[in-house]
Structures are given as structure tokens and as C-alpha cells.
Please model this.
Amino acid sequence: MKLKLHALSGAIALLTIACFWTSTALVELFGTHAQIAQVKTAILYGMALLIPAMATAGATGAALGKGWRLPEVAAKSRRMKLIAANGLLVLLPSAVFLALRANAGQFDTLFYFVQALELLAGATNITLLTLNLRAGLALRRRRAG
Model:
């Protein structure tokens, strides 16, 4: 059960961040300021799904990896710490800032700087989560084999 919960929560986290990133990129390229504000607000509300998914993935991953002394498990753990730090220190504050600025109609240099930082941090987390997914699948095959 723990393994299924870990896989599901990790997949939800990865898909949610990918959805946030894609929505942001598309609305920035093709949307109006009003549409940008809508996407930024939706992303902020979407944190109610993302944060518990990330916490569950981290907690179940730590429980599943307990006692394993494999380099793949250690690498997943290191990546998860980077993902969490990136999320808490960059992505969450950026989401709040960008939603507030967009809803106030403040699309200035600072807004676009933070937007670029958020896109970079989001792409980083997508990459790290994808690497953890691949490593998890490899560990599962190893365990079954």
C-alpha cells in the first residue's frame, strides 16, 4: 500500500508541476494580462493539491527507502531534498508574489524576473522528479527481480 501511495503522490506532484509550468508558458506567450492573472491565481490554489502530494511522496519515499543502502536510494533522497527546498524557498513564494502582482495588474520588470525564476525552478523540479520516477521504477524492477 505504501508503495502505491508513494507512486500516486509522486505522479500527482510531477503532473501538477508540469501543468503549472505549461500553463504559465502558454499564457505568457499567447494570453492577455487578465488570463495571466487567472492562471497565476489557479496555480496558487493548486498548491492545495501539490503541497500534500509532495509531502506524501517525501514521507512515503523515506519510509520505503529506510534501511536500503543503495546509491540509487541515496540519490533519490538527495534529489527530494533539493525539490523540497526549491519548492518552499522559490516556487511557493513566487506563486504568491506572481498571483498578487498579476491580480493588481503589475506586469513590470520585477514580475517578469520572478516569472523567469519560477519557470527555471519549475523546470528544475520537473527534471528532478522525472529522475526520481525513473530511479523508482528501476528500484521496483530490481526488487521484483
About this structure: The chain has four helices and no strands. The helical segments are 2-30, 33-65, 71-103, 109-144. The radius of gyration is 17 Å. The first helix runs from residue 2 to 30.
